[in-house]
Design brief:
With about 325 residues, the protein is an alpha/beta fold. The protein has helices at about 25-35, 60-70, 95-100, 115-125, 135-140, 145-155, 190-195, 220-235, 260-265, 305-310; strands at about 5, 15, 40-45, 75-80, 105-110, 125-130, 175-180, 180-190, 210-215, 240-250, 275, 290, 295-300, 300-305, 315. The longest helix is centred in the last third of the chain and has 14 residues, at about 220-235.
């Protein structure tokens, strides 16, 4: 049984966690002001000012800050400051049984994929693939409200739409690379992080799942290499469907294969449905997706299966 965290309410406390790159205090203070406008209080981590090269403190500091927020009964949700790199370095330092006993909303993306996978597979916790603190700040600067609105509606449990609504001015186009229908829990996140965890105890379990993948700043040959590694490992053998979200700045002007050619080459021989261009990833306008929840893929549309998701155990 999976734990579905209770939704946010007015006055909820949100703990900021920095499992990867160092925190920009000025930026964080600005987002704190935004969230206070929506009646939420941000609580800063113990390693908020810590720095260890490209990391927000040592592995021990980051792991302690992460775990302490889960064990704090006054905290209702845990929100990652940013991605970058570093989350996978603390996986073997976390007490997942203790976290499992204190389930909370957890939100992040990109490098945070490592923690999403571990929390789902070790703590049976549904987590949210969505914007980090730094993404919300950037969108506020760019005066784009789609991501923040969807983020808050999802965490409050107010989004009653029957399907995921795409941005109306998206700079990309959703394509059906292979038709079909699939219903299953959705898992995944950043392709590079999923590939990096292969061969570890936190390798993503895709059996009977709909797999979502995204990435950024990876040329086609690197995307090809990572997808081929997943293919050769058998990771695609038992998936129900594949959502190739956005691969931002992954095309190349040099003589090369296009991303779509790469996808078609690597995925030839499978019969599951494949969708390309779903609004998740390193883009301005993104959805917030509860990982581990049930969705339905059909004709380019992804729909949360609310009745099945309501059966999940609410924490």
């Amino acid at each position: 049984m999976l734990y579905k965290p209770a939704p946010l309410k007015k006055g909820s406390k949100i703990g900021i966690v920095a499992p990867a790159k160092p925190v920009d205090i000025e930026l964080l203070d600005q987002v704190k002001g935004y969230m206070e406008e929506s009646s939420y209080e941000l609580v800063y981590p113990g390693n908020v000012k810590a720095s260890y090269g490209y990391l927000a403190g040592t592995d021990a500091q980051r792991a302690e800050g992460f775990e302490s927020l889960f064990c704090d009964d006054t905290i209702d949700a845990i929100w990652c400051f940013a991605g970058g790199y570093g989350s996978m370095r603390i996986l073997d330092k976390l007490d997942f049984e203790k976290i499992k006993q204190n389930p909370k909303i957890f939100i992040g993306m990109s490098d945070i994929t490592a923690l999403h996978i571990a929390l789902l597979q070790e703590a049976s916790l549904i987590t949210y693939l969505g914007p980090t603190v730094s993404v919300i700040h950037r969108n506020r600067v760019e005066k784009s409200s789609y991501t923040e609105n969807y983020f808050l509606e999802t965490l409050r449990g107010e989004d009653e739409e029957t399907t995921y609504l795409y941005p109306t001015e998206a700079p990309y186009h959703t394509k059906i690379l292979r038709k079909g229908i699939a219903e299953a829990p959705i898992v995944g996140g950043n392709l590079a992080m999923i590939t990096s965890l292969m061969g570890t105890k936190w390798q993503l379990d895709t059996r009977g799942k709909i797999l979502l993948l995204e990435d950024v700043n990876e040329p086609p040959y690197k995307v090809d290499r990572m997808l081929t590694q997943l293919k050769l490992s058998g990771m695609f053998d038992h998936v129900k469907g594949l959502i190739l979200a956005t691969f931002y700045r992954c095309e190349s002007e040099k003589q090369t294969l296009s991303l779509e050619q790469v996808f078609n080459d690597v995925l030839s021989g499978y019969d599951f449905p494949v969708l390309y261009g779903f609004p998740s990833g390193h883009i301005k306008d993104m959805l917030t997706i509860p990982l581990g929840s049930f969705v339905r893929m059909e004709e380019g549309v992804v729909t949360p299966l609310k009745k099945r998701n309501h059966q999940l155990l609410e924490a």
